[in-house]
Amino acid sequence: MAKRSLKELMGLGVRRLREFAYGAPAEPPRAPRLGLALGGGFARGISHLGVLRVLEHEGIAVDCLAGTSVGGLIAAAYASGAPIESIARRAMATSFRDFARWSLSRYGLASNDRLSRYVQEFCGAQRIEELKRPLAICAVDLLSGEPYYFTRGDLGVALRASCAYPGLFQPVEHDGRLLVDGFLVGPVPVEAARTLGAELVIGVYLGTPGPVARPRHMGEVLWRSFSIMQQRALERGSRAAELMIAPDVGEFAWDDFSRSDQLIAAGEAAARGALPRLRELLAPPSSSTSRQPSVRPV
After folding, report:
1. From the centroid of its chain, how far is CA 50?
2. What is the predicted pLDDT for the residue at 289?
3. How many whole angstroms separate alpha carbon 241 and alpha carbon 249?
4. Segments of the chain scoring below 50 in pLDDT
5. Which of 141, 162, 181, 260 is flagged as catalytic?
6. Annotated catalytic residue: which of 47, 63, 69, 162?
7. Is 181 a catalytic residue?
8. Which residues pair with 169 in a beta bridge?
9. Is 69 a catalytic residue?
10. How would you write the chain as a 3-class SS string?
């Protein structure tokens, strides 16, 4: 060990004397670990890209992501490191046949088994651990009624389970469970984001009701019924995100993929409206106002 000079020893002694007198210097405050929880909504999920575009433009880094159904697919693609514009182009070109096929059974009208291959092309990964950001995909165990969070393992299986909309897609068997769409236990997977260590969660909810036309068929009856259930669950929810963003997508149908530009614009508008509150929440504790949960849609 090199010998220290008298000057260095005196400086060290002075610093330690000051620490003893005034206390050790505090570490600089840090922003809370930010999680993004993306809800489901079929074609409406494209508006998630507008929210992500605004966060990137404003230099707001997302530390981890959670998603349900299409929210899980968008979250996985973003966690893979794919550019938002690339994800948007792929989403706009998506059709039902890319991820599903009609396969009538007593458990559903269609199978989403094609989603596994689609996810590999969309995200460039086969396993959740291969992604560049931590990710949780939310599904529900149909037998126990409990949420099931995929944070490791096969990405295709996780998204197939999370996208297994009851009545339309057949449930997915995994780990001794029968799994379906995660929206049944919550429209936005806030708790899934918290399991990844998120200290502050932004939720994005796509079920805000707007003027709706009379349902044209059984599928729209089910879709509208589940939308009402999700809205009531959000209103009653006690484990809310610190900030809930709700893009104005009430006029869009579940299959409005052709209106992708408008959906992305709706996400951008909602995210920009939420920026002042979000910056308050992200400020270091010493300069931040009180962090009271904000569950009112923005």
Report:
1. 13
2. 44
3. 20
4. 1-2, 237-238, 287-298
5. 181
6. 69
7. yes
8. 110
9. yes
10. CCCCCHHHHHHHHHHHHHHHHHCCCCCCCCCCCEEEEECCCHHHHHHHHHHHHHHHHCCCCCCEEEEECHHHHHHHHHHCCCCHHHHHHHHHCCCHHHHCEEEEECCEEEECCCHHHHHHHHHCCCEHHHCCCCEEEEEEECCCCCEEEECCCEHHHHHHHHCCCCEEECCEEECCEEEEEHHHHCCCCHHHHHCCCCCEEEEECCCCCCCCCCCCCHHHHHHHHHHHHHHHHHHHCCCCCCEEECCCCCCCCCCCHHHHHHHHHHHHHHHHHHHHHHHHHHCCCCCCCCCCCECCCC
pTM attached to this predicted model:
0.79
pLDDT tens, residue by residue, 151-208: 999 999 999 999 998 888 899 999 999 999 988 887 899 999 999 999 999 999 997 5
The string of DSSP codes covering 14-50 is HHHHHHHHH-PPPPPP-PPPEEEEE---GGGGGHHHH
pLDDT for the residue numbered 146:
93
